From TrEMBL:
Keywords: ATP-binding, Nucleotide-binding. Residues 30-142 form the AAA+ ATPase domain. The keyword Ribosomal protein does not apply. Belongs to the AAA ATPase family. RarA/MGS1/WRNIP1 subfamily. This is Replication-associated recombination protein A. Gene3D superfamilies: 1.10.8.60, 1.20.272.10, DNA polymerase III clamp loader subunits, C-terminal domain, P-loop containing nucleotide triphosphate hydrolases. InterPro entries: AAA+_ATPase, AAA_assoc_2, AAA_ATPase_RarA/MGS1/WRNIP1, ATPase_AAA_core, DNA_pol3_clamp-load_cplx_C, MgsA_C, P-loop_NTPase. It comes from Chungangia koreensis.
Amino acid sequence: MRPKTIDEIAGQEDVIGPHTALYKMIKNGHVPSMLLYGEPGVGKTSLAHAIAGTVNLPFIPLNATVAGKKDIEEVVAESRMTGKVILFLDEIHRFNKLQQDALLPHVENGSIILIGATTENPFHDVNPAIRSRCGEIKQLKRLSQQDVHKLLKRAIEDEQRGLGKQKIMITEEQTNKIAGGANGDARKALTLLESIVYASDEEDGATIVDDSVIDNLVDRIGVYGDKKGSHFYNLLSALQKSVRGSDVDAALYYMAHLLEVGDLTAVSRRLLVMAYEDIGLANPAVGGHVLQAVQAADRLGLPEARIPLASAVVEMCLSPKSNSAYKALDNAISTIRSGKTGDIPSHLRDAHYAGAKSLGHEGYLYPHDQPLGTFGGWVDQQYLPDHIKHTTFYKPVNAGEEKRMGAIYEKLKTMKKK
């Protein structure tokens, strides 16, 4: 069911729609070397086949995980005979240096048009030498339910490449259910359709699709991602940004997907970081709550681990938020790294040894000896080195518990100035 030309491609309007520069280039017979990046089933291989079919050039598919130098040499030989070929290289992020050395000169001179496909972020995982020779880097997105529905209808009706020779009794509602269950993955949608058809009963020469068969096969089909790939880290990022944005439903959605992938350790670690990075001083108790939740999750294991983790995620979403503490520390680190350092004031240096006074390590005033209302003890003395003594790193956020702490901070600053 792969599209034969770019006009048959469903979805990906931003990449290959009639209004795009790439579409117009291909229609005019010019194919640039390119990288196609996206999740499985979004159409990377199909797009490469469709491009080759549109311009009618020889098409050679290889997989970088198994291809060797000999395979590349054969592609080079083919290009010398035909003048120009399209090399589709799947899993291009696994391309090794030996393969590159054999191929890249021919990509540069245009005899080989390289179309690379990867599920990993090309700016992280694809060799810069390859990236620099690919004029186009296109990110393909999951197909919409409407696009997947269109593909399924085409497969049901197509007598040559699809299931059109069979009489299949399937409703629009059932087709939509399959399209929705595929979660934007065209390959999964077509595989699921085929499985459903062959798992259905026949009656009077017709295949009758039953809802129970669809429900049984759709289960978990939307789950995608491994524990080391770009998509997994994108899920972690989306979870944190949803919590930071106080969107409970989105945060629970990404949490659900991460737990389905199954890396409980990475999820727990990220939640604990978020408690201090994004909630911070606005609600200091959250750090302890999240620690208790991840410890409980570790002891329980999946699937029960989802219960304490869900509580932690909802609490963080709905908590006041502040990143002021770690930002203040980052400001201090930046100051040190820029060379703005100085001698520790003499009265702050260690004086727990004989001879400290002879070195001038004296004059420290003990704050506990000078009570300040209900605050405890405080004394006005210099703590930073001389040439940065007026520097401030911390900027309190007026949220939650930090509102109270920020007021104390500002009051102490005022008293210092006096």
